[in-house]
Design goal:
Elements (H helix, E strand, L loop, with lengths): L1 E5 L4 H12 L3 E6 L6 H11 L4 E4 L5 H10 L4 E4 L6 H6 L1 H21 L4 E7 L22 H19 L4 E7 L1 E3 L18 H9 L6 E4 L11 E2 L1 E3 H14 L7 E5 L5 E2 H12 L5 E4 L8 E2 L4 H7 L7 H14 L7
Parallel strand pairs: 1-2, 1-4, 2-3, 4-5, 5-6, 6-11, 7-10, 8-13, 9-14
Antiparallel strand pairs: 9-12
Helix pairs in contact: 1-2, 1-8, 3-5, 5-6, 7-9, 7-11, 9-11
The structure holds nicotinamide-adenine-dinucleotide and uridine-diphosphate-N-acetylglucosamine.
Length: 337
């Protein structure tokens, strides 16, 4: 089976490519390298011991995509390509809608032209907005508070409409909770541009000495210690969820919407403590104002993924921190070598 992985050079994509190749899938990576380094591909090649087919191109370009679909007989697409910085999406909404929404529309049009009608899409827990209760089930109300989240909701709805128009489509919408961690080798991992927006890379960069201290965004939430609680999920568990989905996609008779989370929530301070233990480094922090748009608590009910994908996360918080630390300490400057 030949799988096109859009955004396959990025954080989650690169980990998924490793698992796909190890499982015997033929993989074509498609990426415009707007938020990835070619070094990540070389590292993946070293891990799997094989050369990887990579096409440099943009999902918004029909020509770029047609080149891929005419050169390779693609059976299914795992669609990671997209922009993901919430703050940036508020400043540049049109860029986000163009890249994430228009890019997905063009991708589906070209897929349809080449009669490839199986797609797994990277959605996000952000589509639940501020949930009225936790754990979060797939049928909870949906909302978006920023253009990034709205672009994910829009693509989910577009894909459902595509199915209504043509029932041959096989569609899986995976709603990720908070991906962290790295491959065991420590040679691939998350490499954010500039100041990290997300907690785990910020903690890791503080532990390695690149940042002076972590700002904890609020300690007066209604949580165990007042700091925000999230469902951190190891990126390799997350990647495995895509393989389970791919394995079963032919049997799905309607679009499937599935949470990928662990079902456990940890606070910011619990994460700091776990990271200090894993790295044997101090992570100095200061309490700062709440970040606009943040919610107190977010964690998944992962039972539907267990039921329909026979998937559950197996890696706990200590392993997430140990693997992040291995990647961060071996690559203090990420992929810049
Ligand atoms: P990433 O930025 O590391 O990977 C995205 C990849 O897509 C990058 O390699 C980038 O160069 C590529 N890309 C972007 N726009 C493109 C375009 N127009 N054409 C071709 N390639 C393009 O991000 P990630 O963390 O690996 O996330 C992958 C997907 O999962 C994204 O869609 C993201 O929104 C979604 N997601 C991520 C998280 C998270 O916290 N990391 C959470 C929920 C959902
Ligand atoms: C962010 C995104 C969300 C996306 C999710 C997964 C925002 C507003 N939301 O949410 O759309 O789906 O990532 O990628 O960006 N924290 C600190 N200090 C920091 C960074 C974070 O205290 O420097 C806290 C946050 O307040 C939060 C927790 O750590 O309580 C996790 O933050 P983060 O990693 O950004 O994830 P989300 O808030 O879940």
């Amino acid at each position: 089976m030949k799988v096109l992985v859009t955004g396959g050079a990025g954080y989650i994509g690169s980990h998924t490519v490793v698992l796909l190749i190890d499982a015997g899938y033929e993989v074509v990576v498609f990426d415009n390298f707007s938020n990835a380094s070619k070094e990540s591909i070389r590292r993946v090649e070293a891990i799997v011991g094989k050369e990887i087919v990579v096409v440099e191109g943009d999902i918004r370009s029909r020509e770029d995509l047609a080149k891929v679909f005419s050169s390779y007989k693609i059976d299914a697409v795992i669609h990671f390509a997209g922009l993901k910085a919430v703050g940036e999406s508020v400043e540049q909404p049109l860029r986000y809608y163009d890249n994430n929404v228009n890019g997905s529309v063009v991708l589906c049009e070209v897929m349809s032209e080449y009669n490839c009608k199986s797609i797994i899409f990277s959605s996000s827990a952000t589509v639940y907005g501020d949930p009225h209760t936790t754990p979060i089930l797939e049928n909870f109300p949906l909302s978006a508070t920023n253009p990034y989240g709205r672009s994910k909701l829009m693509v989910e709805e577009i894909l459902r409409d595509v199915y209504v128009s043509d029932n041959e489509w096989k569609i899986v919408l995976l709603r990720y909770f908070n991906p962290v961690g790295a491959h065991k080798s420590g040679s691939i991992g998350e490499d954010p541009n500039g100041l990290p927006n997300n907690l785990m890379p910020f903690i890791a960069q503080t532990a390695v000495g690149k940042r002076e201290y972590l700002s904890v965004f609020g300690n007066n939430y209604d949580t165990v210690d007042g700091t925000g609680v999230r469902d951190y999920i190891h990126v390799v568990d997350l990647a495995q969820g895509h393989l389970n989905a791919l394995d079963r996609i032919r049997n799905f008779n309607e679009p499937m919407t599935i949470n990928l989370g662990t079902g456990n929530g940890y606070s910011v301070l619990e994460m700091v403590e776990a990271f200090e233990k894993a790295s044997a480094k101090k992570v100095p922090y200061t309490i700062a104002e709440r970040r606009v748009g943040d919610i107190a608590t977010c964690f998944a009910d992962p039972s539907y993924a267990k039921e329909v994908l026979d998937w559950e996360a197996t890696r706990g918080i200590d392993e997430m921190c140990e693997d992040t630390w291995r990647w961060q300490s071996q690559n203090p400057n990420g992929y810049i070598i």
